[in-house]
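Run log, item B.
One chain of 398 residues. Sequence copied directly from the ordering sheet:
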Amino acid sequence: MSGTKALTLKTGRERSLLRRHPWVFSGAVAKVQGEPQSGDTVEVLDAQGRFLAWAAYSPASQIRARVWSFDRAEVPGPELFGKKIGAALALRRASVPFGASDALRLVHAESDGLPGLVADRYAQTLVIQLLSAGCEHWRTSLVEILRAASGCTAIYERSDPAARKLEGLRPAAGPVLDFAVATPVRIIESDIRYEIDVAAGQKTGFFLDQRDNRRSARLLARDREVLDCFCFSGGFSLSALAGGARSVLSIDSSGAALASARRNLDLNGFDASRIEWLEADVFETLRKLYREGKQFDFVVLDPPRFAPTPKDAARAARGYKDINLYALRLLRPGGLLATFSCSGGISPELFQKIVAGAAADAGVSLLLRERYRAAADHPVRIEFPEGEYLKGLLLEKC
């Protein structure tokens, strides 16, 4: 490849790339050469003209380039993408126990060296997200490589998040390759069956990142009265029932999500008398339950993303503190709280401080039983801490 398309960085701005962080921000760029277009491959050079990386150019984004490779010999293209996707699938085979589920994340964007590419497998259906200008540029090649590597019979695209807009791209959603498997798609996770709406469900249809944490909740739920907040399609609720919970109260503001959860309950033949579904605002309902004097043995808080970026952290912190404060007030002594944040703008350290502040306001002491993270098919690279978006705490009320 010719070196005519290149980004030259300002002096000193190469440090993050030398630490193998895969993003080049617009403020780091001193000069653009060769008039690259959106998604084009560019060389990234330091101020002295030395090669740093191959990257995909995105003129509309504050992340002006996303790195495909730090090796000059690894020129971006189908051969390199095939190698990286093959390595991603090999990692899943090595890290996800066989039989744990027939649904898992096959490609996790930057953490697999493929910035902006997400691929989730639901049985024989592959759901993809092409969230960067580089992925959009190489769309045809990436789809074909994923099809061949996964062996899936259907591919559906869910490139509809706001990330596309930041890259100057329009949302894209719909069948990609002979959508032969009708939605909803059925999967099995730890012998629990779920119907997944890949066309309209949250994220790509299901929260695959919580697989291990749902299994933990199942093991802890026996003989407990459980409160599941932001229950979506019932993952934690059904896991608690499967684990022998005495009762479960499941709350979500979405009627469509609760309808999905009820279908999943019926699909598994669980005793419907042990669970109540409540369509309501979680913040208001937690206060109402507290006023009514209700108490529980196990509370799960798995809210949506409150802070997409660090600039949203202050506002999000108030929301996290509020729900954790009332959850702790509703928890019996000796009870368990599994509390999560999927906000990239909230670090694990900040999240723990927020929950500790809630405990202080509630006048309770907490024992940290376990730290939660995303399942193994959502790997985190040490040089890319942004990939560690999901964090959680299992706490016991003393």
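Observations after the first pass:
- The longest strand covers residues 331-341.
- The longest helix spans residues 78-95.
Flagged for discussion on Thursday.
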